[in-house]
Amino acid sequence: MKKIGILTSGGDAPGMNAAIRAVTRTALKNGxxxxxxxxGYNGLINGDMVALEIRSVSDIIQRGGTILYTARCDEFRFExxxxxxxxxxxxxGIEGLVVIGGDGSFRGAGDLSARGIPCIALxxxxxNDIAMTDYTIGYDTAMNTAxxxxxxxxxxxxxxxxxxVVEVMGRHAGHIAVNTGIACGATHxxxxxxxxxxxxxxxxxxxxxxxxxxxxIIVVSEGIGNSQEIAKKIEQATGVExxxxxxxxxxxxxxxxxxDRVVASHMGHYAVELLVNxxxxxxxxxxxxxxxxxDIKEALAxxxxxxxxxxxxxxxxxx
Length: 319
Ligand code: ADP
What we know:
Blueprint: E1 3-8, H1 16-29, E2 33-37, H2 41-46, E3 49-52, H3 79-92, E4 96-101, H4 103-114, E5 119-123, H5 139-159, E6 163-168, H6 175-183, E7 188-190, H7 198-209, E8 216-221, H8 227-238, E9 242-246, H9 258-276, E10 282-287, E11 290-295, H10 296-301, H11 308-317
Parallel strand pairs: 1-2, 1-4, 4-5, 5-10, 6-8, 6-9, 7-8
Antiparallel strand pairs: 2-3, 10-11
Helix pairs in contact: 1-9, 5-6, 6-11, 7-8
Bound molecules: adenosine-5'-diphosphate.
């Protein structure tokens, strides 16, 4: 294989740059040329790409976001778009592609692999909602950002004897919620994976009040939403002034943590080795600290488990 492409697709995640750097440098070391494709699959369709040299990826390992930009691309979901992308690859001499993104991006990589362009996908999403891997690029940074923000919020919540209902990201997955909830000592954690009623939350607040607690952090996962409504109900039932805070996209930015940089570097290196060894249509992941890879379709069919034990522990110790 003489020339490969790399792109970032779907939602951005801190550590994507570290993966771009690792892929580029590993490929160059293997004597390949590397094309950085801009704005996800759009760049493949439009031929928007730039050659990446050793120094093109200098000074990016510490930066959030993605130097290749990212985007969603509806055209790529259809045969015409896929054929345009394939034609670009053939015209540019791109014989393999590394795609960094979430499960939507994996579907695209599977479709393109099936049309003769070998693709390797890396899990890049803050949500950690990919079943075949314990860990996705960006997850650790997002959790640390959320934790730091909730700590700040706690200072003012405590000073005013308030209740803060904090909404963290994660789409339909509660991994960020349960981990930041336990790390910030949240009184209650509300995630889609665990059935709940607002009355349960109110009851828990009231029972902690009897032991002298007078400020409360309630972490709510993005998929639940309704933070304002939950805060209102808590205030009405308990008389504790309650405010909702939606942390939002700030969780997607910032310098990646050690963990995200190391995992992204490891996965990027592994992805190029797969291409060099003739593999296609694989997703790279990390299980029990080891790199693994799965067929894209198989990976997409897997179901992610939830940290029920961690949730139970959080409920046991934060009251
Ligand atoms: P993520 O990769 O973060 O899950 P999306 O679900 O938005 O984000 O997917 C990113 C892009 O991947 C889409 O804009 C589209 O270009 C491509 N994609 C998603 N689903 C499919 C599909 N079923 N077939 C082909 N391409 C897809």
